[in-house]
Amino acid sequence: MQRTLNLSMIDYYFQVTPIVALLGPRQCGKATLALEYATQHAAVTHFDCENPMHLLRLENPMLALQDIGGLIIIDGVQLKPNLFPILRVLIDRNRDKQRYLLLGSASRDLIQHSSEILAGRISYFELTPFTLLETNDVKKLWLRGGFPLSYLAKTNSISMTWRQEYIKTFLERDIPNLGIRVAPHTLRRFWMMLLSYHGNILNASDLGRSLGFSHTAINHYLDILSGTFMMRVLRPWFENMSKRQVKAPKLYFRDSGIMHTLLGVSTMEELNNNARLGASWEGFAMEEVIRRSQVDENSCYFWATHADAELDLIIFKNDKRFGFEFKYSDSPKITKSMKIALSDLKLDSLTVVIPTDASFLLDEKIFVSGLNDVSFS
Question: What is the DSSP letter of 231?
Fold first, then answer.
């Protein structure tokens, strides 16, 4: 499945900076995309930091890279954070003859200060697992999640087994490879507890008491899961008003398939009968809307007061405020909370996203839309 939009985005970022970091969870398709991009270039050199022979060459990165021209792809760059100072020197010397495409399975915050070392020389582009625009099958994508090998599996059972192995490898190999020392069973236990917080406001003290962890440990584990693209920490928006507003973040599993695996859900029938059905839809649909908006996390928030109103998602784009509610219903109604959010936040529109293809107007600025028809106009 060719991901044309993502290929064009890499081209765009190379017009901005000579280094592009393609970041995203392991197995989301970064290497495949990089190889597709490489076919457009005559001179390409590829290093894989999980290949012992390539690692040996990169033991002396200045010697290995200084005379290479064209596109240089370095996969697994999170395993070699010591490369970044060398890349700064090399790109300043060879800006006209070298371009670097770095692939990483951790956020820039976890890749040891690359943003500071390479400031002005690097752009960051997050590649997500498959989206609805790429697959056009809401139910299958929602159930299995967007990881290519999970989504494309021949059966739901094979998909589920792949995700179970993915989670095991993530906890037992990927996290230690980042230099993070957390026992796999401890992080898995914490991750399982977050199932009950999906779509809810985080109370770190309550969660810590439930697990017997300190507040510091809770924040550390959450940083790990958000920094490896497993969890979304959605921050609250504060409006200048007299109402008391919620200041703690909300948590979401970023891939619905991973969430369903931890829930033990492998079929649509099981999902339809699960108590977390509505919360699962909210997280899945929210992630799709954020991806479609093509804005970064600093433009996405939720809003809630301690009394009478909340909004699942507010996105700031093109000097407009777009509000979203996510309802697992085919006939949502206007609520008091929607009216308050529309007024207090001065929204340009409020869209209620539902799991059907129906689209209709509820009020002058309140729309109901299927996930396929969400727009930012």
Answer: E
137 secondary structure, DSSP code? -
Alpha helices in the chain (DSSP H): 4-16, 30-38, 52-57, 61-65, 83-94, 114-117, 132-135, 138-144, 148-151, 156-169, 175-177, 184-193, 204-211, 215-227, 256-263, 268-272, 277-293, 336-344
Whether 101 and 137 map to the same domain: the answer is: no
- Residues 34 and 178 occupy one common structural domain: no
User: CB 64: neighbour CB atoms within 10 A?
Assistant: 17
Domain that holds residue 74: 4-126
Residues 250-304 pLDDT 10s: 999 999 999 999 999 999 999 999 999 999 999 999 999 999 999 988 999 999 9
DSSP annotation of 288: H
What is the C-alpha to C-alpha distance for residues 341 and 347, in angstroms, rounded to an integer?
8
Both 120 and 149 in one domain: the answer is: no
pTM, two decimal places: 0.94
Contacts (Cβ under 8 Å, ≥6 apart) of 190: 211, 213, 218, 221
Which tens digit of pLDDT belongs to each residue from 36-93?
Answer: 999 999 899 999 999 999 999 999 999 999 999 999 999 999 888 889 999 999 999 9
The widest CA-to-CA distance across the chain, in whole angstroms, is 65
| pLDDT exceeds cutoff 70 at 1 | no
Same-domain check for residues 122 and 144? no
Q: pLDDT class for 211, splitting at 50, 70, 90?
A: confident
